[in-house]
Amino acid sequence: MYRGRLERDLKLWTQQGLLDAPTADRLLKEYDSRESSFSLGRVLMMIAALLMSAAVLLLVAANWEAIPRLVRVVGIVALIWGAYLAGGLLTQRGAPRLAAAFLAAGTLSFGGAIALIGQMYHLSGDAVQAMLVWFAGSVIAAVLFRSGAVTAIAGFLAFAVAWTDWSEAYHASDTLLLWLMPLMAVIIILLVRYTDAGRVRHIAYLLLVAWLAFIYGEHDTPTTAIAIASLGALAYLLAAVPQSPLHALARSAGAAPAFYSYLVLLLGLLVLHFEYDAVGDRLMLGIITLVVAIGGIVLSGKENGAVRYLGYATFAAETLYLASETIGSIIGTSGFFLISGLVVALIAWAVIVVERRFSKAETKAEA
Q1: Lowest-pLDDT range, 56-60, 156-160, 197-201, 248-252?
Q2: pLDDT band at residue 87 using 50, 70 and 90 as cut-offs
Q3: Per-residue pLDDT tens over the stretch 157-174
Q4: Nearest residue to 343 (alpha-carbon basis) of 314, 323, 328
């Protein structure tokens, strides 16, 4: 997405004479050379690593009983260490994409080895413990090789650990997830900063959002929803307000901290819409939601497109909801659709005005 916008901007600047064509080509090539940029070859290499790891593990599992026990253990260890050593050597020789494929294969093979060896020696334990060992192994591998690919695998394994524990517990008496999910999210964020795997931070933020959803699922009360919305509001203000002591740290992580904290705030308000039945309470909650939507656009609209569009969508949805709860119940269905159309037109006009002001502000800043 960003590359497409960058390419269009470079072409526009070249046409306007602000930039010569060779410089624009060099800028685009420099972006494509970055490790964090999208590469079809890297994606296909990772898919190949996944398929080869699955093929080897299935082949071993199919002939498991025919292989002597010592050969099994030696073969599994050799497969894992061979993949890691190959990944390390390729990293030193300047082949990061192929190295990432081998490191991913080694990490996935480690998970398969846990299951196969546990079955072979009848080791005690449950699926959650096995997933935790796999997650810990992936974290260690990501640190040792400073691999963004392994960091991504660790992020998905964190979700797998949470899902495995939740599917086995089904109730709140098991408090493991209450502290484990945020701990794993913090570990992933630290790995993201250490390995410079910027995109993987979204996995950590989504894990925190899922953790809050888990808490509300176990304690579905208005107080819990208010606490979640308040937490999201506090986190958003710390990330978005320039005077905040954490603003610089949040900006260094890109648009994600402000967006996900704003999302948590809006999700908390959304849940409260289902908690209150009285018309007066819903009307007050709707007004608060509209204020929050406008506040997000004002605070982050210029710099954070994700928050801006989420604010637009929230404002439009809440306006239509309030219309359905008030005007719609008075003038009937046809009148409601008419009023809704007028409301949407007003919202569109307001969005156009705001966008123009942002554009003028950016032009003045550049001048």
Answers
A1: 56-60
A2: confident
A3: 999 998 888 877 554 445
A4: 323
Instruction: Spell out a b/e string for 232-256, using b for 16 or more CB atoms within 10 Å of the CB, else e.
Output: bbebbbbbbeeeeeebeebbebebb
The torsion defined by the Cα of 54, 59, 63 and 69, in degrees rounded to 10, comes to -60
**What proportion of the chain, given as a percentage, has pLDDT over 70?**
74
**Sign, CA torsion 127/133/137/140:** positive
Tokens coding 54? 């699955």
Range in 91-100, 151-160, 222-231, 326-335 the model is least confident about: 326-335
Nearest to 300 by CA among 238, 346, 345: 238
Q: Is the pLDDT of residue 151 over 70?
A: yes
Task: Kindly tell me the burial class for residue 160, based on how many C-beta atoms sit within 10 Å of its own C-beta (0-12, 13-18, 19 or more).
Answer: middle
Is residue 10 over pLDDT 80?
Answer: no
User: Which of 241, 354, 362 has its CA nearest to residue 308?
Assistant: 354
Which tokens is 199 given?
């995109």
Closest CA to 153 of 112, 205, 178, 188: 188
